[in-house]
Specification:
With 268 residues, this protein is α/β, with parallel strands linked by helices. The protein has eight helices and twelve strands.
Length: 268
């Protein structure tokens, strides 16, 4: 009887372990949660779908970095640290140095909505607090860790360029392509889709724009940079075009649908 009970317990334990393994999503390295803080559970919903990149808009208000798209939305309880840095740190510690249980690169894009130098000045001591998990940038090298911070929006380029060491990368624009910017300073190239392409997500992307999109992605990759577009159509037709062209991060507000799209691709 004891032997039977032991077998049953072992079977139950193995079933629970298998279930937990299945619950851990496969990391989707090309999935970027645009305006992530608008989801029911900021950060956590994206992570539950396997996303490896999230975006948080940040305002400097009364010395605190608060998350929101508009100033009237801001709440002291919704700070950058509370919604993003602290939860990421907890996961990194729990997972032995990785945001996801399956090790994968993870990016947190911080989009400054207030004065660049002042906001960056407030951000730096906060990043120092979480140095153990943050990618370190120098003029000629990058030491990749669990979380890579990228600064967008009101970017304080002059301030960041003067730093010998940083805990954040700079988000460039298409105009920066081919301008010899180091990927150790400017790891990303992001820009508005609507400023460079006529296609709005209906029908097929023209051959000319397909060629243009692929050329942009290739040029960024040749410079060691990753490329992303905001304001792109957010539907499967657009995701297919971006994926096929080699765009590194696909912007979406539709977490579940993009996750299923990328999972169907079988790799990312």
């Amino acid at each position: 009887m004891k032997k039977i009970m032991l077998i049953l317990l072992m079977t139950a334990w193995s079933s629970v372990a298998a279930l937990k393994a299945e619950e851990a999503p496969k990391p989707l390295v090309r999935a970027h949660a645009h305006n992530d803080y608008y989801h029911k559970r900021p950060l956590l919903d994206a992570l539950a779908h396997g996303f490896c990149s999230v975006e948080a808009d940040v305002f400097l208000k009364n010395g605190k970095l608060l998350v929101g798209h508009f100033s009237f939305e801001l709440k002291e309880s919704r700070s950058l640290e509370v919604l993003y840095l602290a939860p990421l740190a907890k996961r990194v510690k729990a997972n032995g140095g990785s945001v996801h249980k399956t090790k994968a690169p993870f990016h947190l894009m911080i989009d400054f909505k207030t004065d660049g130098p002042k906001t960056y000045s407030a951000l730096q001591p906060l990043l120092e607090k979480y140095r153990f998990m943050l990618t370190e940038f120098e003029s000629d090298k990058t030491k990749t860790k669990a979380v890579t911070i990228v600064i967008s929006g009101s970017r304080p380029r002059a301030v960041m360029e003067k730093q010998i060491k940083r805990l954040a990368g700079y988000d460039g624009r298409l105009s920066d392509l081919g301008q010899a910017a180091s990927p150790h300073f400017m790891p990303w190239i992001s820009d508005s889709w609507r400023s460079h392409f006529k296609w709005r997500g209906k029908g097929e992307l023209s051959t000319a724009e397909q060629v243009k999109l692929k050329r942009i992605a290739q040029q960024a990759h040749n410079g060691g940079q990753k490329v992303r577009f905001w304001a792109a159509p957010d539907n499967p037709a657009a995701w297919e075009s971006l994926h096929k062209a080699g765009v590194d991060f696909i912007n979406t507000d539709r977490l579940d649908e993009l996750a299923k799209f990328l999972q169907a691709k079988g790799s990312d």
